[in-house]
Amino acid sequence: MAPLIGRRLRKGAATTAVAAAAMAALTASQAPGFADSDQGDRHREQRAGEAPAPDDTPIDGGSSYHTDLPPLVTPDKPGSSIDLPGLPGSGNTKPEAGIPASVLDAYKKAEAALRESNPGCNLPWQLLAAIGKVESGQARGGNVKADGTTVSPILGPVLNGDGFALIKDTDGGAYDGDSTHDRAVGPMQFIPSTWANWGRDGNGDGERDPNNIYDAALAAGNYLCADGRDLSVKADLDRAILGYNHSQEYLNTVLSWFEYYKRGTHEVPDGTGVLPSGDGSGGSGDKGKDSGKDSGNGGGNGKDTGKDPEHPRTLPKPEDKPDTSTPTPPAGENGGTPGTPGTGTPTPKPPTTPPSTPSGTSKLTTVGAKELSAVAGTDFAQSPRVKAVDAVGKPVAGARVRYEILGETDTRFLGLVKSATMLTGTDGTATAPKLLAGEKAGTFTVRATAVGREAAPVEFAATVKARPVPQADALARSGDKELTARTGASFADALTVTATSKGKATADVPVTATMITSAKDPDLNDKGPYFLDDKGKPVRTLTALKTDALGQLTLPKILTDDHAGTFLLRLTAKGGAVLDIELTVTQAQTQAPASPAS
Hints:
Blueprint: H1 13-28, E1 98-100, H2 101-117, H3 125-142, H4 192-198, H5 213-224, H6 234-244, H7 248-262, E2 266-268, H8 291-294, E3 363-366, E4 371-375, E5 385-389, E6 400-406, E7 412-413, E8 419-423, E9 429-431, E10 435-436, E11 442-450, E12 458-465, E13 474-477, E14 484-486, E15 496-501, E16 504-505, E17 510-516, E18 531-532, E19 538-539, E20 541-546, E21 552-554, E22 565-573, E23 578-586
Parallel strand pairs: 1-2, 4-12, 14-23
Antiparallel strand pairs: 3-5, 5-9, 6-8, 6-11, 7-10, 11-12, 13-15, 15-16, 15-21, 17-20, 17-22, 18-19, 22-23
Helix pairs in contact: 1-7, 2-3, 2-5, 3-7
C-alpha cells in the first residue's frame, strides 16, 4: 500500500490559533488596490466557517492533506530582506519558495489556458500552487517524469469511512488500484469519480491522466472556475477552495500558501522541492532538508515554532520591512564609550518614508471604440476596454472592473456568461472577455463599473446585425434517374438538390418547392403530386426548406393522387436560382374481376 500523502489535520485549538494568526497577517498584506476593491461585493461575503457545503463530493474526497504552514518571514521585494526567495546558489534562497520546474510550468500553463477559455474567472497560478502544496507537497517535491507524470503514484488514504469519508469504488481500481473503495489520486488529489467529470488533457498527449501534473492542474483550474466563479472575489475564492476539501482549517492552510506564493517564488529543478514535514513518500531532492527551518506546522525560521501561546506566529505586512542594517553592540560593550563612533554606539538610522499606497479608482475612461458591432452568429472584432485612473490621473493597477451585458440580446461573453469581472493591469486598463454575438439582431449595452468605487460607469453601444441570407445562383439535382410513381402511391426515390453560389456549395439557402401547371404558365397546380405539411394535410407548396451544411436539400416524400400524367415541380432558391423537375405518374393497374366458375 502506498504511504499516505500527509498527516490528517486534527481540529484543535493550537492548530486553529496558528492558522488564524497567520491568515490575519496575510490578509492585511494583500497588494494595494486588491483588498479594498471588494467593497462593492461585501454582501456576497460570508463569515469564516459559515460557507455552505458543496453540492457535490469534494475533489479530494475529504482526504488527508499536508498541514505545514509557510515560513514566518515571507518573500518580499528584491533587495529588502535576507529572506528573499532569490535564485539557487545565491546564498539567500528560501527553500519553501522554490517550486519544481515542471510543476510550476503546469500551473502557469493552466492559468494561461483558463485566461483564454474563462477570462472572467481570474484564476491565478499561485492558487493552484497553494493547493498543490497542501495536497501533495508539489507532486512530492517535483518527482515527475519529463512529460509531467509522477514517477510513482500519489495516493490518498482508503476512503472506507474509518476517519475519512466512505466512498465506494467508482473506477474499478483503474486509477487508485482499489476495487473496493476510492482513494484520492495524483498531485492534485482527485478521487476517481470527480476526475471522471473534471479530467482534462493539459499536456496535449490525448490522454487525461490524474497522475500527470499538467492534466491535473488544468482540471483543478476548471473546477475552481466552475459555476461562474470570479476568484478575485473573496467569497468565490473561499467557495472554490472549500469545494476541494470542506474544512475551515483546510481553507486557512491553502490561503496562507496562496499569499506566500503571491509574494515571490522561484523555480527549482524537478525532484528537488522541499517535502512537507513527515512525508517519507519519496522524492529525489531535499527530502527533509531544512525541515526545521522552512516547513512544519509551526516552523518557519527555526526559532519561532508557533507553540508558545504568548507569542503567536505572525507575518509582516508589506510595509514592515525586515531591518537589513548591521546591528551594533550596545553602549559600553567591547570597551566602547557612549557617543563615540565605532565604539558600540548604535548608528542612527536614516528616516524612512512609508511606502505610498496607490489611491483608489476615481474614474473610468473608454479605451478604443465605444461603439461595437458584429454580424449574428460571429465574434465581435473588438472587446470593450476601459482604463482606471486615480484622482490625479494616474493609472490604477489591480482594480476590479465588472462588465455587464444589458438589454434584450442573446449575445454573451466568452464562457456564455452575461457578466465578468476583470482586473486592471499595470497600465490601468481592463479588457472585457470576447463578445460572442447571438442570433438575435438588435442593439444592447455593455456597462463597465469600478467595483466598490463611486466612479461613474462607462457604457458601450453594441449592435448585432442580422446575418445575411445566403443566396444561390444555381440549383442542380443529384442523379438523373427518372422520377416515376403510380397513382395513389408515392415516389420511391428521394429527390436531392445542391445549391451553389459562384460554383461553391452554399449552406442555409432558403428554397421553395411548388407544383406548377407548366414552365410557361407557372400557376399552382391543384391536382397531381403533393406533399404533406406538419399536420398531415396535403399541400403543393413548401416554403420552410433550407440547404444543409453541404449545400444540399433532400425534399420530403412526394405522394400522388388519382391523376396520372406528367407534372412539373419547380424549386426556387433565394438569389434567383430555379430548377424544374418532371414527375411522371402512371395509372395503377386495376385487377380484372374473376370469371364465374363454369
